[in-house]
Amino acid sequence: MTHTPDSPPSNPAASAAGETAPDTALTQAELGHLRHCVRLAQAALDLGDEPFGSLLVDADGAVRFEDHNRVSGGDATRHPEFEIARWAAAQLSPAERAASTVFTSGEHCPMCAAAHAWVGLGRIVYAASTAQLGAWLAEWGAPAAPVAPLPIRAVAPGVPVAGPAPELAAEIRALHARSRGIVE
Ligand SMILES: [Zn+2]
């Protein structure tokens, strides 16, 4: 019997990894949308808001709505993903929502993941994960958020999710460092 350990099985280990399976396989178009989100996050930071940006792409690949974090006015719920959910509920049919993809610089928080699922939006692609952000904040000794750092899958298990994008991690980390006055 021939034994060829170098031949990968047809069913790669990723399929058994569950939550970490989508970590790869972002297309160039998806990375382009994520880079756009990072620019929105940068714009938010320049305005004194927290560095998060998000956009909604419809089934034809067109960007239909984009926003960035706007919490500096005192309303801590002004997250871009929440704005997207409310915009979509008002402007898109249920079928259009389900066929849309939301791209975001940082993985949805539980509030936004819930809003996304309640209005029936489709896939989410994020650049940096909640776990990554939590690790950075812990490293910097920053206070924890008042909401449990649950991944999207724990809040909205029916929503297809992809991310993170390692290509963008350093840039996003730098934005969050700057947001908290951390010099690296
Ligand atoms: Zn949120």
TrEMBL record:
<feature type="domain" description="CMP/dCMP-type deaminase">
    <location>
        <begin position="32"/>
        <end position="137"/>
    </location>
</feature>
<feature type="compositionally biased region" description="Pro residues">
    <location>
        <begin position="1"/>
        <end position="11"/>
    </location>
</feature>
<dbReference type="GO" id="GO:0003824">
    <property type="term" value="F:catalytic activity"/>
</dbReference>
<dbReference type="Pfam" id="PF00383">
    <property type="entry name" value="dCMP_cyt_deam_1"/>
</dbReference>
<protein>
    <submittedName>
        <fullName>tRNA(Arg) A34 adenosine deaminase TadA</fullName>
    </submittedName>
</protein>
<dbReference type="InterPro" id="IPR002125">
    <property type="entry name" value="CMP_dCMP_dom"/>
</dbReference>
<dbReference type="InterPro" id="IPR016193">
    <property type="entry name" value="Cytidine_deaminase-like"/>
</dbReference>
<feature type="region of interest" description="Disordered">
    <location>
        <begin position="1"/>
        <end position="21"/>
    </location>
</feature>
